[in-house]
Specification:
Blueprint (H helix, E strand, L loop, with lengths): L1 H16 L4 H25 L7 H11 L7 H6 L4 H4 L12 H11 L3 H9 L2 H8 L7 H10 L1 H6 L1
Helix pairs in contact: 1-2
Length: 155
């Protein structure tokens, strides 16, 4: 939060020094919006235990990201090899089942704080990578991105 405050102060000074520059005001306004969002995310994360549906989201993301073994072969596999550790991170290791996509959509629908929580825990990245396996989450992704202005900007 301190970085946002310092940047806003610097942009206020820049606006005084160069009043004809529109970029200073635009960036100043954008940093204010970003600071408010960061504060909102921090508040949501502090109160995450009270979010309805949080347990299911945590379970589903852990399962999709491969943190919960899906088969005996995965239990026996153990840790990733050194070569695998150097690769770009994989956020989704398994396909999303239709019932999982439906339940996730019901939980996230109209819950802005829960969508923020979901996104902070790499939920959107996981859903996007799940498209490599099947398209069960495509409609959910489109709804979430269209309904949430910040996610629209991020994508």
């Amino acid at each position: 939060m301190n970085d946002f405050t310092e940047a806003i102060k610097d942009l206020a000074q820049a606006k005084l020094l160069c009043p004809d520059q529109d970029d200073c005001q635009r960036l100043h306004d954008q940093y204010k919006v970003d600071k408010e969002l960061a504060q909102r995310i921090a508040t949501v994360m502090e109160n995450a235990e009270s979010l309805a549906g949080k347990e299911y989201i945590d379970f589903l993301l852990n399962a999709l990201q491969g943190k919960i073994p899906q088969a005996l072969s995965e239990v026996a596999a153990g840790k990733p090899t050194i070569a695998d550790a150097k690769k770009a991170p994989r956020y989704c290791q398994h396909a999303v089942k239709p019932e999982e996509a439906k339940k996730l959509g019901e939980i996230l629908k109209g819950q802005a704080d829960l969508v923020l929580y979901f996104n902070v825990h790499d939920g959107m990245r996981t859903l996007v990578q799940s498209l490599e396996y099947n398209s069960e989450c495509l409609d959910l992704l489109m709804e979430l991105i269209i309904d949430n202005e910040q996610l629209t900007d991020d994508f």
